[in-house]
């Protein structure tokens, strides 16, 4: 990865408006709920950014827009300099990881990890090489000797790490992680957070992590973007210099803590 | 095990009832008489069972191809689904038995009208369950596949088809059951061989024990085919079992 491009942004939202259309309740027509209103923000290439906010605040919508799963009503989105989404033949720019692992139970761990490339139509030769690389990565992901195991044979933490391996194998330079530890028990979550914090430096990718866990955000990210109100018009930036200060500031922005003006630092 | 015990109990009660009340044997034969008929008529019964089995297997195979094919086409093209679904439902709403004589009229005393009638009955549950199964794919997985830019057919092969397989097998098991009745009714309406034809012939000769023997053989055929489908299902859908096992473990 060339250092020369470090100035660029891996993800850029330009006055993006998006709506959410809930499933219509019985006998009623679904009305649109605005989620984003002319939202602009950028994520620096090579950074680890956390997107924090309460449930239903539009964090996941931002991620799904970046992954090309949802389309904006208005505005422009750029992922590594191009529109989101992908066409067969051209490499993925963003790899999306949903909250639930969504591993296919009829495929082994390795087959699951190779699924994104397979779905993208890579030739047999490229898939064989990818398989070798995935095998090499297994120990790094704490999955040594589990390559041929089926998801049902893995523990919750292992499944989540397998889903993360699949996300990395998809090859995007921007990793979009949607509450990757949200479905785990507290102990396993902590283990995986520490593991990811350790892995973070060897990941040559930009990470955008959606979470509602302020501690997790401060532990992993260099910068926290706070979603304070819905519809989202702006994101508050909190750089993480030391964790305690950043946590306090984020909680404050979320209105979960009494304001302590003397401690406010950074932005 | 429990089923076998119950069957034994019923047979004993039947035998005892016949010994006790002695109904005319052309009304209700004793199980021992039915067993004797099974043995004495074994050559005729087996030859005709072979014909019916052939009809059933042909019907199930044809239903599988037509039913699954239609369901996949409907899932792939909502426009085709919109046009085809009403006709599919309509095909089940008129009394098929009534058109069976027409089928015999057109196709003669061959296998064809029986197979066709069986297909007419058995393809419908297969279409409906396969179509529904293909539509019941995990929403998270669908989003994931969309984020990878997976093409229509690739997504179908890797995600939708395996997800639908449990529903396909449910439809297949129904198709087997319906094909048995379909083939027999087809034989009643005009045949020169088959267990259905045999039942009618024995019945007109007042050979009740032979009728019962043929019915038993038919039931055994149906149950055997159903069980065989279940075995194949468990073999193919092994991952469903392990996934359920895990859900059980998590809840424990």
Element layout with pairings:
The complex is a heterodimer of chains A (267) and B (252).
Chain A: E1 9-20, E2 33-44, E3 48-52, H1 59-66, E4 74-79, E5 94-97, H2 109-113, H3 115-119, H4 124-137, H5 156-169, E6 174-178, H6 186-199, E7 206-211, H7 214-220, E8 223-226, E9 236-239, H8 243-253
Parallel strand pairs in A: 3-7, 3-8, 5-6, 6-7
Antiparallel strand pairs in A: 1-2, 1-4, 8-9
Chain B: H1 2-21, H2 31-40, H3 42-76, H4 78-93, H5 96-107, H6 112-135, H7 139-147, H8 152-188, H9 195-204, H10 208-236, H11 238-251
Helix pairs in contact in B: 2-10, 3-4, 3-6, 3-8, 3-9, 5-6, 6-8, 8-9, 8-10, 9-10, 10-11
What does this structure look like?
The complex is a heterodimer of chains A (267) and B (252). Chain A has 267 residues and is of the alpha/beta class. Chain A folds into 2 domains: 1-23 and 31-93 and 174-267, P-loop containing nucleotide triphosphate hydrolases (Rossmann fold); 103-171, no CATH class. In chain A, 29% of the residues lie in helices and 22% in strands. Chain A is built from 8 helices and 9 strands. Chain A has helices spanning 59-66, 109-113, 115-119, 124-137, 156-169, 186-199, 214-220, 243-253, and strands at residues 9-20, 33-44, 48-52, 74-79, 94-97, 174-178, 206-211, 223-226, 236-239. In chain A, the strands form 2 sheets. A 6-stranded mixed sheet of chain A has the order 5-6-7-3-8-9, sandwiched between helices. In chain A, strands 2-1-4 form a 3-stranded antiparallel sheet, covered by helices on one side. In chain A, helix 7 (214-220) crosses helix 8. The longest helix of chain A is centred in the middle third of the chain and has 14 residues, at 124-137. The radius of gyration of chain A is 19 Å and the shape is globular. The model of chain A is unreliable at 1-6 (pLDDT under 50). Chain B is an all-alpha fold and 252 residues long. Chain B has a single domain, classed as MetI-like (MetI-like fold). In chain B, 86% of the residues lie in helices and 0% in strands. Chain B is built from 11 helices and no strands. Chain B has helices at 2-21, 31-40, 42-76, 78-93, 96-107, 112-135, 139-147, 152-188, 195-204, 208-236, 238-251. In chain B, helix 3 (42-76) crosses helix 9 and helix 6 (112-135) runs antiparallel to helix 8. The longest helix of chain B has 37 residues, at 152-188. Chain B is elongated. The relative contact order of chain B is 0.13. Residues 247-252 of chain B have low confidence and may be disordered. At the A-B interface, strand 5 and helix 3 of A face helix 7, helix 8 and helix 11 of B.
